[in-house]
Amino acid sequence: MSRSINQLHGNKLEATDGEIGHVKDFYFDDQDWAVRYVAVETGAWLTSRQVLLSPHAFGGFPRFENTLPVNLSRKQIENSPAIEWHRPVSRQFEEEYHRYYGWPCYWEGDGLRTFPVSEPAKKTLPGTARAAIAKKQNDAGAHLRNTQVVRGYRVQGSNGIAGHISDFMMNQKTWVIDGLVIKTGRRFSENEVVIPVSKLSRVNHDESTVYVDMTREAIAQSHRQTPVPGIDTKGVHLTRLPARLALP
What we know:
Blueprint: E1 2-4, E2 12-15, E3 18-29, E4 35-41, E5 51-53, E6 67-69, H1 74-78, H2 91-101, H3 127-140, E7 144-146, H4 147-150, E8 154-157, E9 160-171, E10 177-184, E11 191-196, E12 200-204, E13 209-212, H5 216-220, E14 223-224, E15 230-231, E16 237-239
Parallel strand pairs: 2-6, 8-13
Antiparallel strand pairs: 1-9, 2-3, 3-4, 3-7, 4-5, 8-9, 9-10, 10-11, 11-14, 12-13, 15-16
C-alpha cells in the first residue's frame, strides 16, 4: 500500500515520552527514490534545532490517525547531531547521525540499499569493490533531494510536456517512492494521474524536469488520482476515508 506524501505533511510526531512536532518534508535518494529522512518542524519544543528522522525511527503508519509514532525519546532527539536546513545533507553528517543512533548505514554493501536495511557490509572486500563502494559513499549525499523542491517539476513525455509533479506515492513498508502524481490538462481543468517511477528515464534538476518513457496522451490516460490516503500505482484504490477522517 502506498501513501500520499502530501497527506503526510503536517502529521504530528509522537515520541515515547511526548509530542515532538510535525512532518515538514521528506528527503529521498533520486537514484532509487527511497525516502531516507523525514524533516521535522519541532515548533516551541526545540526552537533552536532542526531535526531529521530516519525511517528506522518510526513504528508504522496508523490507518485512521494523523499522528505518527516515533520509537525515540525526546532526549535522544534533542542530543542527536544538528542539521542546518539551508545546507545540503552531507555524508559526514549522515555518518555521525547513524553512528549516534546505532543504525546501519543505508549506503553500505554492494549498492545503495533501500529501507529496511539488511546486514551491514562485510569488512573484507576486493579492492575494486571497496573503490566502488567508496565512490558511492562520496557521491550519494549529492543525490538527496527534498519533495518540496521536486514537487512542481515539469513532466516531459516522449512527445512534449505532459504536466507537472504535484505529489508522491510512497510505499509505507519499504519507504520507496513508487509513483508520481502528475497534474495534467489546461489551467482550471487540470486532472491528477499516477504514473509509476519505473517509467522515468532521467531527472534533470538544473531544468526542474523529469523525463518519462510515455507519450503525453498515455500519461493523460493513466490512472486518475483521487483524494484518498492510500492508493496503489497499478490503479487499485486501497483506502477511501470519509471526509471527517481524511488526513490533512
